[in-house]
Amino acid sequence: MDKIFNTRNTVTFVALLTLWRLYLSAGLQLHPDEAYYWLWSRKLDIGYFDHSPMVAYFIWFTTLFSNAELWVRLSGTIVTLLSSILMWRLALQLFGSSRVAAGSVMLFNVFPMTMMGLIVITPDIPVFLFWSLSIYLFWQIMEKKKIWLWYALGLTFGLALLSKYTAILLLPCLFIYLLLSDDRRWLKTIHPYLALLAGFLCFVPVVYWNSRHEWISFVFQLGHGLGGQEYSLGRVADYAAGQLLLIGPVAWLLGIYAAFAWLFRKDKAILFLILTSVPVIVFFGISSLKKLAGPNWPAFAYFTFSILAAKYLLDSSSKIRRALWYTALFTSLLLSSIVTLHAKFSVIPLAKFSRELAVADTTNWFYGWRELGAELMKEPDMAFALSPSHQLSAEMIYYTHETLPVQTDETARPSQFNLWERPHGLNGKNGLYVWSDGDSPAPYEKYFATTSQIRTLTILRGDTPIRSYSIVPGQNSLTPSLPVQ
């Protein structure tokens, strides 16, 4: 059985999964979040309302020659491959075992997080890359003692911060490792601190942007992440359930067990893996006491978590542990297959069980936007559109191929649309007001001198209606009534 753990088989396995991810990337319509981040890439800046700017730069680069869904999402596939290479090299360096290296990469590539989550282009894509690079470089410093690598680490840490604010968690993880290991002598040198300074210097543009916009992004993320709800253990249970689904139940439970079983072993490689993964997972679990953390928030922690789980299950003479690795691989692959096949081909007949289940299906977010764009383009005389949702507005811009200027109204959740300049010269022009199920539309009549009858576009997935759009044509727009910044 151990003959499967070699470079050729690992490359073949990853290549097949990569082809499937590319197929999904090309075939699924953009998720509302993706459309919103794609719109950022059309208006490059050093900061944005919701996040650091790196996701916009990634999308801009991959869409230089095409705006098709595959190219919008291509960064996810590239980052998965680069992270797999780094994982292989790091596992070999840590343990000198091709079995652990191959087992780590194979596990990582079958996680639902990887198979589905890392094709959807969000800030999780760039932060995963730069977190992984930072982890890899840090271990090179510990092993090779090359001082210049500290400054390379400072750069990748800065790029991670430019990807997502939660990359700041890298600091306590590495600091605690240094305190608890023989490598603490580095803390007596100036290099870690200069590297830290270099990382924060990379982040200065975002700080500057926030200072020019009333610190709006920092304030938004603090509220979004920590919120103000009552403490609840139920949310922690929901968070843990999300992690089980994100990774696969067997792999996640065994990885967590390995971390706590090995926590006090005098092995700095094991300590390194534990401290660069588990604290992140635990942090978001604790934060869920106050406000539920998204299941994707600790995604970057699973770079070293994958190696830890593979080390525990494969670097042992125990046949039971080896069997558990295969069980973890199979269950994660099965879960990923079900999710991705359903996202593309609707293989789970949810409507037979309950119409409510079919409508609540989260993979529905990959459907219906192209049809809406085609419907809107049937009225080429419309000069603009309004909606009560920043995500819906972004989808309309993408699927009308940027031919229809779209803005949010004053009822929409604050977003980057509030910071971009509004179009001029709309007074007296015809426009559309559009909303979908679940939106709270504004009194749209005030934006126009007259409005036509509401028409409805219903989106079907199979035979099941999953979403409806309401479209109101308006004539002779009243510019003073249009929403302002």
Set out the fold topology.
Layout: H1 7-27, H2 32-41, H3 54-62, H4 69-95, H5 98-110, H6 112-117, H7 124-144, H8 148-161, H9 170-180, H10 191-212, H11 216-226, H12 233-247, H13 249-261, H14 268-275, H15 278-287, H16 302-314, H17 319-345, H18 350-353, H19 355-360, H20 369-376, E1 384-387, H21 390-399, E2 406-408, E3 431-436, E4 448-451, E5 455-461, E6 464-477
Parallel strand pairs: 1-2, 1-3
Antiparallel strand pairs: 3-6, 4-6, 5-6
Short description:
Strands 1, 2, 3, 4, 5 and 6 form a six-stranded mixed beta sheet that branches. The mean pLDDT is 95. The protein has helices at residues 7-27, 32-41, 54-62, 69-95, 98-110, 112-117, 124-144, 148-161, 170-180, 191-212, 216-226, 233-247, 249-261, 268-275, 278-287, 302-314, 319-345, 350-353, 355-360, 369-376, 390-399, and strands at 384-387, 406-408, 431-436, 448-451, 455-461, 464-477.
